[in-house]
Amino acid sequence: MHVVSRAPFDTATRQFPNQAAALDDVYRTLKRENYTSPDEMKKRFASLDRMKYREKWWVIDVGG
C-alpha cells in the first residue's frame, strides 16, 4: 500500500484547517512506512476501517 498523491491531504487541510497538523502527520507516516496488509496498517492507525461503498478502499479517522 502506498499514498498516491498529496493532493487529497491538501484538500482536506483547506477544508479542515484545525486538523492540518494531524493530516500532515498521517501523510508523512503513510509516505515513510510500507504496509503489506490492512491488518498491519491497523496496528499503526487504530481507526482504519474499510470503506463501505468502494471495494479495496480504506478510511483513517484523523480528527478523532
TrEMBL record:
Protein name as annotated: Cytoplasmic protein
* Organism of origin: Escherichia coli
* Single annotated GO MF: RNA binding
The opening ranks of the lineage are: Bacteria, Pseudomonadati, Pseudomonadota, Gammaproteobacteria, Enterobacterales
Xref: InterPro entries: Toxin_HigB
Gene Ontology cellular component terms for the protein in this record = toxin-antitoxin complex
Pfam families reported in the protein's UniProt record: HigB_toxin
